[in-house]
Design goal:
The protein has 156 residues and is an alpha+beta fold. It contains four helices and seven strands. Helix content is 24%, strand content 31%. The longest helix has 14 residues, at 125-138.
Length: 156
């Protein structure tokens, strides 16, 4: 049976964190995924192009935070892809930005980023919103203002 997903784009300022929290709650109530990244104008993005990106030890210059829930009793996966390389943990720690203690770190890779897993019942959507907004902003050298672009995909 084909599943229909609804797709929407949100453009959020720091004061609109509650909209991201509501989107997380919607995805956790059905299933789907959310991607969040700091807003960076196209001409300010300095991505490594083509073949050279394969040999880079870093991920994307503009970090992407992700929350994925496949429904049922499955674990929630929360990711943070970044271009800070091996320094990402230290940068976040120095800024006092820490993932909630209920999240289990499954990956901390300089190029592929972080991946945590957590039981759906242990996800505090407000803390998740705060963490992903702060972490993506702090790890983004190109972000000038505290605005984010969020894509929300959930079952209809």
């Amino acid at each position: 049976m084909k599943q229909n997903y609804l797709y929407e784009i949100l453009e959020l300022s720091e004061s609109q964190k509650n909209e991201l929290t509501a989107a997380f709650e919607k995805v956790l109530s059905v299933s789907g995924w959310i991607n969040i990244e700091p807003f960076v104008e196209d001409d300010k993005r300095g991505e490594t192009a083509g073949l050279f990106s394969w040999f880079s030890a870093r991920g994307p210059q503009v970090p992407i935070g992700t929350l994925v829930f496949e429904g049922g009793e499955k674990l929630v996966s929360i990711g943070l892809s970044h271009g800070a390389g091996r320094n990402a943990s230290a940068i976040l720690s120095d800024e006092g930005i820490e993932a909630p203690s209920t999240w289990q770190l499954k990956q901390d890779h300089p190029k592929r980023g972080f991946v945590w897993e957590v039981n759906k019942t242990e996800v505090d959507t407000n803390s998740a919103s705060t963490f992903l907004m702060e972490a993506t902003y702090r790890l983004c050298l190109a972000a000038q203002e505290r605005f984010w672009v969020v894509s929300v995909n959930h079952l209809n």
